[in-house]
Amino acid sequence: KNEVEQSPQNLTAQEGEFITINCSYSVGISALHWLQQHPGGGIVSLFMLSSGKKKHGRLIATINIQEKHSSLHITASHPRDSAVYICAVLAGGTSYGKLTFGQGTILTVHP
Amino acid sequence: DAGVIQSPRHEVTEMGQEVTLRCKPISGHNSLFWYRQTMMRGLELLIYFNNNVPIDDSGMPEDRFSAKMPNASFSTLKIQPSEPRDSAVYFCASSQERHQPQHFGDGTRLSIL
After folding, report:
1. By a Cβ cutoff of 8 Å, what residues of chain B touch chain A?
2. Mean of per-residue pLDDT scores for chain B
């Protein structure tokens, strides 16, 4: 079993829909990252969080440390949100920033 | 500010050839990471440098892979000899400190024929 599991693996939505991508992990962590990878291949860090919730524009990330679970929400989705969303965890106690990655969620938003 | 710069963007070469991938981290960042991304295995850490010193190379798949960071502004990942199974996208990332977000380069798409 992978240390980081994402669901769903594939997600198709209509423009305007509210989207949720989930990430569960099995190890103690000090932080969790949400990354976005567009079809061109570049990877962008969206959020890094260790507790609570963060919001940036239409994107919201939450984390529950006790339940070892994080969610990424996209409100009022748009076709330009189509990308692969990757959850990555920074294991607790790690002396440096080694990330363990989920397998990614492929999001397609149709106009 | 310029982001992480990788070169080349694409590389196609025949098996057995030496391949060198290059990375310039963001100025002031003291942590540098090399990752490999494949369809089968997703993103995997190959090696991590802190202040130009390799800290963890446990992800380097074989002795054919080597990485150097001769100074704070340059790193290389070398594969010699290359094999078709090395075909992947190789990303370099840097961060200011260990718990800061990592900034990724655009990647090098490597194809070994």
Report:
1. 31, 33, 42-45, 48, 50, 55-56, 89, 91, 93, 95, 98-104, 106-107, 109
2. 93
